[in-house]
Design brief:
2 strands; rod-shaped
Amino acid sequence: MLSLRCIVGDVVRGGLLRRTCLRLPLPPPPLPQLTQRCFLSKGGSGSSARLKLRTRLLVSLLFGGSILAGWRFVYLEKQQRQRQIRLDQLRKVSLGQGTFSLLDQTGRRRTKQDFLGRWVLLYFGFTHCPDICPEELEKLSSAVTTLDQV
């Protein structure tokens, strides 16, 4: 049908339609075949592409390993700093250091010098606590019993 119009159009309009019919758009040029090799690397053989893949994996592993090593270093430094701060705090408190002066149950003043060479168990409790104090006193009595056996 198209060829008939071209011929008729050629006769009727002096060949104008025929020329346009002959100028049909050309089919697009064929696209290059995309293969796995094209995606992995540009040109080269399959072993070259595999080598480049191995190189990329090695670089990725080295990069990830260095990030992990850096994180581990920073983590250990932080832990060491926290331990040092804790030791400094305990040194400031210095339990067992210094002197004290307290009143005993008879109203007599007692100091550290009165207890040199003996076990001392100081307990600061409440005057009235029905919940916690009995349990704590039971723990203290078991500690005293254990110390007596030693």
